[in-house]
Amino acid sequence: MIKQNNILKHCGLIFLLLFLADNSEAQDMHFSQFYASPLYLSPSLAGGTDGGRLVLNHRNQWPGISKAFTTSAVSFDNFFTRFNSGIGVQIIQDKAGSANLSFTHAALQYSYNVRINDDLQFVPGIQFAYGSRALDFSKLIFADESISGGASGSWERLANENTEFVDFAISGLIYNARFWTGITIDHLAQPNHSLLGEEIKLDRKYVVFGGANIWTEQRRRVGLDRAFATSFRFQRQSTFNQLDLGFYWFNNPIEVGIWYRGLPIFGEVKNRLNHDAVILLMSYKYGPFRFGYSYDITVSNLALQSAGAHEISLIFEFNQQAQLRIGGRRPAVPCSDAANPLIDAYKYRQKRRRVF
User: Fold this and answer.
1) Dist. CA 267–CA 259, nearest whole Å
2) Does a structural domain hold residue 352?
3) CB burial string 159-198: b at 16+ within 10 A, e below
4) Is residue 313 domain-resident?
5) Cβ–Cβ under 8 Å, residues 137 and 148
6) CATH number for position 67
7) Distance (Å, rounded) from C-alpha 106 to C-alpha 166?
8) Can you give the residue range of the structural domain that contains 325?
9) Closest of 257, 233, 219, 243 to residue 339, by C-alpha
10) Cβ–Cβ contacts within 10 Å for residue 117, how many?
11) What pTM, to 2 d.p., does this model score?
């Protein structure tokens, strides 16, 4: 009986993940360290530093649930001074369940810096992406075939072990040396992503993000570099809404931060408060490297079962061209050095800048 209960529980998880993937209201994967996964946040952040940037991300969501969700990503982007443009590429894979329900996303991004005036910069971006979803049918075990020992009628619903599609996204970022705000609209093509042979389109996702540099201190003689800032990210996909709001303190080389994810003041979701987690962040910067770790403290009804979420990030910058800041050509986004390497507001001088 115990073995049979384990099989039923295991099958329930598989079907939960399967139908979440096919449900038209399913949400995309996400990273709590959203500024440490810049290309996933917005194509406008491609070429966001003064040279090259390599980023690695890994997230283990709900480790208390066996084989729930793991997400890994790698991205590279570079700013090309001659063309005042940024180009980026990223590959992300999300896996869940013992049947390896997976989502793979590969994208090519382009951004362009436009001077609005001596204080504001505008960066439009575009993304072309290839996506696929896959499931290993050979690893599926259904409850009725386990009990009866015969074939399951559930197999009739399964149509494709994988589905492939192309997709597009656009974005815009506006900023000066004190604040930044941007918007990303993803899944413009609304591709069909069903594994059940049905027409189920991927809903468009709207992301609004931003922040402000509340206080910054930099003293070159003593090597002091401090910053206190706030940031947010709001996402909407179908009927799902999510807000991440928090603060971080950077005291070179260490950064600590705290965020809250949820929207309780806007009512309930299926008779439950719309709140998810409190996120704690700590990062360390060593030369061109930045390592970050965050932990999601789940505050929803999944708290006892999920065991939260662990997330790590590694950022490596190289071939940086400091003269872009010193010459006043590209003001820095006023975000912390660890969360987004665009900061260095004290290098920014209010000189006239050219588009090229």
Assistant:
1) 20
2) no
3) eeeebebebbbbbbbbbbbebbebbbebbebebebbbeee
4) yes
5) no
6) 2.40.160.40
7) 10
8) 2-347
9) 257
10) 9
11) 0.80
Give the pLDDT confidence of 333-348 residue by residue, as tens digits: 555 454 443 444 444 4
Q: Report how many domains make up the chain.
A: 1
Do 186 and 202 touch, CB atoms closer than 8 A?
no
Q: Using the 8-state DSSP alphabet, how is residue 175 labeled?
A: E
Beta bridge partners of 228: 215, 249
293-338 tens-digit pLDDT:
999 998 876 656 667 789 999 999 988 875 555 444 555 555 545 4
Query: What count of residues does the chain have?
Result: 356
Residue 32 maps to a domain: yes
83, two tokens: 């063309």
Beta strands in 238-356 (DSSP E): 240-251, 254-262, 268-269, 272-273, 275-286, 289-298, 309-318
Could you give the 3-state DSSP secondary structure of residue 162? strand
Specify which residues 52 forms β-bridges with: 78, 318
Round to whole Å and give the CA distance between 140 and 162. 14
| Distance in angstroms (rounded) separating the CA atoms of residues 37 and 244 | 15
Do 104 and 131 contact (CB within 8 A), yes or no? yes
